[in-house]
User: Fold these one by one.
Assistant:
Number 1:
Amino acid sequence: MEQRVQTKYIEGWRVMRKKILFIIPPCVAISDLIPDRGKTFSNKIRKEVPLGALSLATYLEHYTQASVTILDLNLEFYELVNEGKIGETEEAEMYIEGFLKEFKYKEFDICGISSIFSPTYSYLGIISRLVKKIFPAALIVAGGGVPSNLMAEVFSGAPCIDVISYGEGELAITGLVTSKNEQEYLANSPSLVTRQKYQEGFQASFEFIEELDEIPPLDFFPYRAQKV
Ligand code: B12
């Protein structure tokens, strides 16, 4: 079965080695980051492995030659918040810009923002704007439960997001990475929704991996570079 998948992507394997960055926004809304607001469990930053981004990274590294970097802002913000370094929303933004700039030399082709929990919505506009500023050539894709279910809000609240990935992203992102013609691929993908497709009333549908054995075991390596 693995053979079938590899054959499907083999053309792309040879032609390109794309660089991809996955960003995980903090799981606490930006308005709740500021200290001294009587934090409860639900608005405390937590360190949890971002399973969605890791699953995408593992799949991409298994089936393509893409190189994947993961920036989990929860790990960075965990310390910043605990050390009381964030006093204003602008400071949070400044720190995010700083973390992104550390990777400037990588010149990513695609930046994916993973938004699973509702509070991460408050970062989509900020992160995508900073990504566009620092990596102007990168295609910005948002995925996860929040953009999948709130396409109108995400497209209007985050004008720098180019594409929303609907549902599970493995097949969509792998197809995009290995496609010879990105624009054509985006136009025809059932689960990747561009602004134009959205405006034309396109209805996205899921892309499931039918053969579960094709899913490689999670590789934590791209995540280990950060302070876990
Ligand atoms: C496992 C799980 C957890 C785990 C781990 C979560 C994690 N780190 O990812 C733990 C136990 C830690 C957890 C905790 C909580 N969870 Co939880 N969790 C789940 C659960 C059951 C599965 C998520 C999962 O791992 N899926 C498997 C991975 C591989 O898939 P994925 O993350 O969805 O990513 C895929 C796609 O979304 C997409 N994708 C995602 N990002 C991107 C990015 C790009 C660029 C692309 C292209 C695609 C893409 O592709 C990925 C691969 O297919 C979901 C329900 C569900 N069925 O989704 C609830 C769910 C996400 N959790 C939920 C909640 C409420 C919580 C808690 C707040 C509970 C609590 N009161 O503490 C906490 C919050 C933790 C935090 N950090 O703030 C809600 C979120 C609702 C919301 N709107 O915010 C959900 C939806 C359950 C529900 N229906 O209520 N959770």
Number 2:
Amino acid sequence: MLSVQHRFARILTTAVHEVSLATSVLDTVERLVAGGVIETVRVAVGELSAVEPELLAFAWEAVVSGTRHQHSRLEVDWIPARQTCPRCRVEVQRSPGQWHFSCERCGSPLAIEGGYEMDIMEVTFRQAAPEAED
Ligand SMILES: [Zn+2]
């Protein structure tokens, strides 16, 4: 119990954003499963959403700890932003965190598409046993 509190305290000081997101994902999913027990939640997190996937998964563990969903897992699909040239209509190859200023072929400024996702994609759950688990 102490270690959970310790971890939660650490999260609170480092990842307030992720904790509040995890809390709101839990609120939404709890309404969705209507009394069921959550097994996995898969969320899409965009590169530009300012969410750290690892911190979000960690925040989830803290948020569900002590609830009937405490064995559930949060899976994060990382969605990179895409840089495209509006003139050549091609997508520029890039690594995460690496940005290009202009198209290598024609020099046009590049457009950015996507990367702001923060969506609940899939939820698995089971019906709660008739007698309460804890
Ligand atoms: Zn171009």
Number 3:
Amino acid sequence: MRKKFFLETVGCQMNVLDSELVVATLRKAGYELVQDPKQADVILFNTCSVRQHAEDKIYSALGQLRRHKERFPHKIIGVLGCMAQKDQELIRERAPHVDVICGPGQLGKLLHLLQAVERTRQPQLAVSLGRAEAHRPEVQESFESYDPLREPELRSNHFQAYVRTQFGCDKFCTYCIVPSVRGPEQSRPPHEIVAEVRYLVEQGCQEITLVGQTVNSYHYRFGDGRLFRLSDLLYRLHDIAGLRRIKFITNFPRDMTEDLLQAVRDLPKVARYLHVPAQSGCDIILRRMKRMYTVSFYRDMLQRCRETIPGVAISSDFIVGFCGETESSFQRTCDLVATAGFKNSYIFKYSPRPGTKAYELYPDDVPEEVKRRRNNDLLAIQAQVSLADHRRFIGQTVEILVEGPSKWAYKLRDRISSVQADSGLPDQKSSEKEEFLQLTGRTDTDHIVVFDGAMRLVGKFVLVQIEDASPYTLFGRYVGLADVPCDRIVLGNALTNDPDSAGQGSPLGLADAVGSGATISANPTASEPRFRDWNSSSETSAPPQAPSRRLPLPLV
Ligand code: SF4
């Protein structure tokens, strides 16, 4: 009988991609993926260490499994990913019933680890070297590449895929644990990435998203000394016939180079969407975070992006309540959000992480209720900005890639089914249900659009006329298939990007609106979530989607 495995994933796009590859490997080895951990012979957690909240949830889940493991000692429990790399000893202490601990740089060994547990009934550990444990080349080598050939049927859909451009990070922002748990920054050779994308496209993939902790710092040096940058990679990928859209996340503000912006401008397949986390609008806090730029540099960078790429949409990340953040520091962040014209922002409350510089150097001195209030205030400001941004689309026809039914559509369908069951009415035929589903998709500027349409449109590029807008979603009417890419629709920026306006209230009067207590509540929506994002449940702003949506976590 086939062995069954369950895999729960939390965290960023890197983890989503890692999990996809783990699923592919285990299924290839004959395992069957199941949705209920109780049915599984192997229960795995792909973990995140960016916030305490995410770690607490994993320990809680492991605690709940203790009794289960006592009753079924042959079952294997594994902790994968960043927590495994960071907290090997702690996991063994707090959850001694865990059989496998496997860091993100060792996932290629997972199958062997599982087999070793079966054989020996002894716990197995595979982690990479810590950054202080050896010289850089050895540490680098200990983080192994894990990007086996992709199998379309093992992805959540056949038309979209993440593709890794690099591992690790060398920026060392003081609040961030990523450089420790994911190791030194290493760019993959271009030929590997191009071959992987070609393979994905042959399998029907139309949209790829290049992912890296700081994707725009991608650089690969050939043996003869030539440098290959992200812009070069975009040109190479753009030539692949059949590929319709290329996205890349997440960007570091200092690495937003002219060649990259020009490539986005000049290559029609490259999405006009840049996620560039600012993290704070206060220079003192940015210095404490060791972000290596000032607010004025960031504003100039925004201006360069918008001057070079007409119609580009930019989103950001912010951390509120970082150590030493005063009311006036926070006010500067509010000013930045009110005036910068972000499409959306992901907003997080600071969570001190052992092992980071900030944890060592600065007291976590902003009380939790203040963090919460600032989080809500910033969300409210961003919601007003997002609404203005979204309203510009009303009356326009946009091209979107249809991703699937909206979450609201799933809820409605379940509700109809339960009402029918209660009333004794016959169930609708599934084909009838499909005809009336609310579908969701994204423009090349990453704006979320919902419209009513048939399931057969999922995975296709279609044209939708926008009729209404909320802060997170555009609502439209299906116009037809976009068989060939339509010309880019370029809308002017509704918001001023004039750095001189900082601190003087936004041109939309947002400061007044917020000051008077007027808020727009965040009502994010999402297409069918592919993983549970425990971090985002209470701590992030949610961008987009009609009635509800999973938010990617920030990579920078
Ligand atoms: S926040 Fe981003 S850029 Fe900074 S250290 Fe972490 S992963 Fe690197």
